[in-house]
Specification:
Distance between the termini of chain A: 6 Å
Strand content of chain B: 35-45%
Structural class of chain B: alpha+beta
Strand order of the largest sheet of chain A: 1-3-4-5-2
Number of helices of chain A: 3
Radius of gyration of chain B: 16 Å
Strand content of chain A: 35-45%
Largest sheet of chain B: 5 strands, antiparallel
Number of helices of chain B: 2
Order of helices and strands of chain B: EHHEEEE
Shape of chain B: globular
CATH class of chain A: Alpha Beta
Number of domains of chain B: 1
Largest interface: A-B, 29 and 29 residues
Radius of gyration of chain A: 16 Å
Oligomer: heterodimer
Number of strands of chain A: 5
CATH superfamily of chain B: Hotdog Thioesterase
Shape of chain A: elongated
Strand order of the largest sheet of chain B: 1-3-4-5-2
Largest sheet of chain A: 5 strands, antiparallel
Helix content of chain A: 10-25%
Number of strands of chain B: 5
Helix content of chain B: 10-25%
Chain lengths: ~140, ~130
């Protein structure tokens, strides 16, 4: 677990990048239980206006949580995590999760993080998660 | 969607924190130990069918997108434990033909302690839009 003395307000979390693949999204559907065809069937995704299947919002949030857990040191330190879903994520894209320490609550020693997930698309930055948040217990 | 369904509560659904599913989650997100925080989504999907099937709520799931998600933990989930998942319709707002529903779920352990509360905001997009 990360210790209070080593954490300061404004500190950035190391960014975590991953390429989103069809195989991983299918594995996510099986593990998480969301078998919506929007995430597995290109024809269904096209019928609602997407170029192909989109990753689950919870896939993207799971990746964001992985970046938080990596910083926190262990999943048990995560007291709260939330995300608003903004932009879809398509197969083959690279999602990048990041964050920074917004404040620290003492004496409870809880770090409040603002977090995000971004993707570069057609020369622009899109935000699958623009305003995520987490509360992490420090030792 | 029917705004009058705000406040509806649903019977508890049992959910086991299956170690093999937890392991699959860890592998997928390269988390080395413990239960990943967003694994709670699996418990939500265990309790969601009765919400989707609720004719009073009348949520058209084929038009639903996931708006936001939050998890708050009193303690981490433990692998192998059985939890009771209690769902409720916390709020419903209609704006511009779209319906915004917040489904809250409490995950209760064998001692009756709510170990986690999950909140999902689902957006039911306007029909024919």
């Amino acid at each position: 677990m990360r210790t209070r003395a080593t954490v300061s307000v404004g500190e950035e979390l190391p960014e975590l990048a991953r390429v989103v693949t069809r195989e991983d999204v299918k594995a996510y559907a099986d593990a998480g239980g969301d078998q919506n065809p929007l995430h597995q069937d290109d024809a269904v995704a096209r019928s609602v206006g997407f170029p192909g299947i989109v990753a689950h919002g919870m896939f993207t949030m799971g990746h964001m949580a992985a970046a938080i857990v990596a910083w926190a040191g262990e999943p048990d330190a995560v007291l709260h995590v939330s995300a608003q879903f903004r932009a879809p994520v398509f197969m083959g894209e690279t999602i990048v999760a990041g964050g920074r320490v917004r404040s620290i609550e003492d004496p409870a020693a809880i770090a409040v993080l603002e977090t995000w997930v971004r993707v570069e698309r057609d020369g622009r930055t899109e935000w699958p998660v623009k305003k995520g948040e987490a509360r992490v217990r420090l030792a | 969607m029917n705004p009058a369904a705000e406040g509806t509560t649903y019977p508890a659904v049992p959910f086991i924190v299956d170690p093999s599913r937890v392991a699959a989650f860890r592998a997928l997100f390269e988390i080395t130990e413990g239960v990943p925080p967003t694994f709670v989504t699996a418990a939500e999907f265990a309790a969601l069918p009765q919400v989707v099937a609720d004719r009073h709520l009348d949520l058209d799931f084929s038009r639903v997108v996931h708006g936001s998600q939050a998890y708050g933990f009193r303690r981490p989930l433990r692998e192998g434990e059985e939890l009771a998942v209690r769902a409720r319709i916390e709020s419903i707002r209609m704006r511009g033909g779209n319906g915004f529903v917040t489904i809250a779920m409490d995950l209760e352990d064998a001692d009756g302690v709510v170990v986690c509360t999950a909140r999902s905001q689902m957006i039911e997009r306007a029909a024919g839009g």
